[in-house]
Specification:
Length: about 700
């Protein structure tokens, strides 16, 4: 039940009003009565009053002051003034903002009094609700990050929230009454043409709408921001449009984040090159284009030849930097329309799109090989990498990305087998080879158990005396169905799958045992050279393994020579020096195999404890041809002499080569001209009879 406070000095009036209000049935009030302003004010301050009925003429206050005093105490409580005839003017004057009613004494007893009092209270309640809602809306609008601008029917701004002030650079005061096109300047992000503010369309069509994608807001200071928004009409009670409101927010950050995310998803984090996913996309697109224009496209699959070694010996940080440097080199080798991507590890794929001629791919491959001859300068290291490249062509070698990549990969393996640092086109025969590789690997695992390995021995000859100075142990695999397999067909596979380690251990032990047997039999010489893969050398237990084999077989360390390839010496890293030094400390001899094909620098050669240089047979085989290789061989021999290293020429096949080498004072030779690699029994015979120098001269 609402409580009404009656303030009047007239007890009769109070009684009449009190009666009509408290006996109004369902519409009854709790009625309180005070005679003076002071008492009324006091009661009001105590609270709980829903409405006041006040006679403005009170014993302690007259007229408008009475009203003001009451409304000052309870500004939100509705006041109904009571007046007698002739007082009307005063009451009208006292009309105050807010709910205000008045009641003539003539009507005090009317049954309408409770009703009008209720109406007055209700109106005030609605006003209060409205006020709360308006405040809440104001706070909400100013706390959200979306900008909100309101306009009238002409599109002139009549409201801006704080976010809109910040985004446009206009304050509410400045913007008020200005056209929206001025306060919120927008343009098309693509064409950079000014765009009409959607508010105008909303006002015209009386329908909400979204802003075109890619809209740019130009702030008052000229700065730009990508925005996203919508605009809607505002209606009055009758549903008539009276203005519009536009809501928008800055999507610059989320847009650049989205761009960044999609870049990350499509690029390799290390080199920033397109990744597998993006490459596949580009290939599919290039295929569609090639179909339409009847052109070719080529895929170059690259695998760095000696990356693993660099990474293992110099560490991942340098390895990563090298990959980044290679990525740059590769990118510089291709046209803008081509794609260089990293597949992972040290594998890259280059998409040469829309080539008219198949030769374009070969040109790119040659360009890449040439570009990679320039060393990479990383953390004071001069790093040389080469690469093996396999090429597949659309449509000849595959009709989809997957097949093309697979076949380019297969061709790459072929390039590796062809001695690395070269490129090979895919041929169908290679697919057969790829399968063969897998078969070989499977059989290789059995070969040890089935004792299918044997060693052959090839003599090294003193070129001046013709004496056999030692042998090189060369691995042979006697497969029950395939016959004798030469190392070139299976060593690389054994290295790839890790089988090289147990195989190498067997070779070392077998070579040492056999050489010891010859020594015991009184046959000379008693020195054997064993080929060691880099992968074996890098194992922490390698030196210890060599020591154990020497001890167990009883072969004196001076009779064992380990042949390592040039790549071990290519980097001035501590682990190489340490391993080689520890081997030297054991007393074994160290030889650099295939010398002259890599890039080993002279300074490293001096620094490493090497005894022997074996000139690669590709250099020897060119002796006599007019391409200057003879000069290289001569230089290597001279260098060996001045560095105090023995020089052994490999692959000596004829008298001409022998004469040339002898003339240059090369000390030792090895090759078919002297003897092919022989099984142990045959080599025993050779040791017994000796190699006849007279025959050679004859
Ligand atoms: P390499 O160490 O350079 O061995 C010399 C290769 O040249 C041998 O081939 C030998 O048969 C061949 N050769 C010798 N004289 C001549 C000649 O006058 N003309 C021609 N054209 N070739 C000649 P092989 O036995 O096929 O071995 C090939 C390669 O396989 C070796 O090259 C070596 O790097 C590797 N290899 C052989 N046995 C082993 C082994 O037990 N362990 C490891 N890790 N690698 C091995
Ligand atoms: Mg060798
Ligand atoms: Mg060699």
């Amino acid at each position: 039940m609402p409580t009404v406070l009656i303030i009047t000095g007239d007890a009769n009036d109070a009684k009449i009003l009190g009666d009509v209000l408290s006996n109004a049935g369902k519409k009854s009030f709790t009625v309180l009565w005070k005679e003076t302003l002071a008492a009324g004010v006091k009661r009001l301050q105590a609270g709980g009053i829903d409405a006041v009925m006040a006679d403005l003429s009170l014993p302690d206050s007259q007229g408008i002051e009475t009203f003001e005093a009451l409304s000052a105490v309870a500004p939100h409580t509705p006041i109904m003034t009571l007046f007698s005839a002739g007082e009307e003017v005063l009451t009208t004057e006292s009309a105050h903002p807010g709910a205000q009613d008045y009641l003539s004494k003539a009507h005090f007893g009317s049954y309408l009094v409770p009703q009008s009092l209720r109406n007055m209270i209700q109106r005030r309640t609605i006003e209060e609700k409205f006020f709360i809602e308006k405040t809440r809306a104001g706070i909400t609008l100013n706390s959200i990050s979306d900008a909100v601008i309101g306009t009238d029917m002409e599109g002139n701004v009549d409201y801006l929230n704080i976010a809109a002030e910040i985004m446009t650079g206009w304050t509410r005061g400045d913007a008020h009454g200005h056209p929206i096109s001025e306060v919120m300047q927008i343009m098309n992000g693509g064409t950079r043409e000014p765009e009409r503010n959607p508010i105008y369309l909303v006002l015209q069509q009386n329908e909400p709408m979204k802003l075109a994608a890619g809209t740019i807001l130009i702030r008052r200071d000229g700065r730009e921001a990508a925005i996203e928004d919508s605009a809607a009409p505002i209606h009055d009670w009758d549903g008539k449009i009276v203005g519009a409101v536009i809501v928008f927010h800055d999507i610059t950050a989320s847009q650049s984040m989205a761009i960044k995310m999609s870049h990350l998803a499509q690029h390799d984090f290390l080199t920033n090159l397109p990744n597998r996913m993006l490459l596949n996309d580009r290939i599919e697109q290039a295929i569609i284009l090639a179909q339409r224009n009847s052109t070719h496209l080529a895929l170059l699959f690259l695998d760095l030849d000696n990356f693993k070694h660099i990474n293992d010996s110099l560490g991942h940080v340098i390895g990563d930097k090298l990959l980044q440097s290679v990525a740059q080199t590769l990118s510089a080798c291709v046209r803008g329309s081509d794609t260089v991507s990293r597949q992972g590890g040290d594998e890259f794929v280059i998409l040469v799109s829309a080539s008219k001629h198949v030769e374009d791919a070969a040109l790119t491959a040659m360009k890449v090989l040439a570009a990679l001859t320039v060393p990479h300068l990383i953390a004071r290291h001069e790093l040389h990498v080469t690469t093996s490249i396999g090429i597949s062509i659309y449509p000849e070698d595959g009709l989809d990305a997957e097949t093309l990549i697979k076949n380019a990969d297969t061709a790459m393996y072929h390039a590796k087998e062809k001695g690395r640092n070269n490129y090979q086109f895919f041929t169908n025969a290679m697919n057969v080879r790829a399968v063969e590789r897998q078969v070989i690997e499977a059989h290789l695992r059995q070969a040890m158990v089935r004792q299918q390995f044997v060693l052959h021995y090839q003599p090294k000859i003193d070129l001046h005396t013709g004496a056999i100075t030692g042998s090189e142990a060369l691995l042979r695999w006697n497969h029950s169905n395939w016959g004798e397999m030469l190392p070139d067909r299976f060593i690389a596979i054994a290295e790839d799958c890790g089988l090289i380690v147990p195989i190498g251990q067997w070779v070392l032990r077998e070579a040492c045992e056999q050489t010891k047997r010859w020594e015991i039999a009184g046959l000379k010489p008693v020195s054997v050279a064993v080929n060691i893969s880099v992968l074996e050398l890098r194992r922490t237990d390698f030196v210890e393994g060599v020591r154990a084999v020497l001890q167990e077989t009883g072969l004196s360390p001076g009779c064992l020579q380990l042949e390592i390839t040039e790549s071990v010496l290519m980097y001035d890293d501590e682990s190489s020096t340490e391993i080689l030094q520890r081997l030297k400390d054991l007393g074994v001899q160290l030889a650099v195999d295939d010398f002259g094909t890599g890039y080993s620098s002279l300074s490293y050669l001096i620094q490493f404890p090497i005894d022997v240089l074996k000139i690669d047979r590709s250099l020897v085989s060119n002796i006599g041809f007019a391409n200057g290789t003879g000069i290289v061989v001569g230089a290597v021999i001279a260098m060996g002499a001045s560095l105090n290293k023995r020089v052994v020429a490999e692959g000596v096949e004829n008298q001409g080569q022998l004469d040339f080498l002898k003339a240059l004072h090369c000390e030792e030779g090895q090759g078919f001209f002297f003897s092919r690699p022989l099984a142990a029994e045959q080599f025993t015979t050779l040791l017994t009879t000796g190699w006849r120098y007279a025959d050679m001269e004859g």
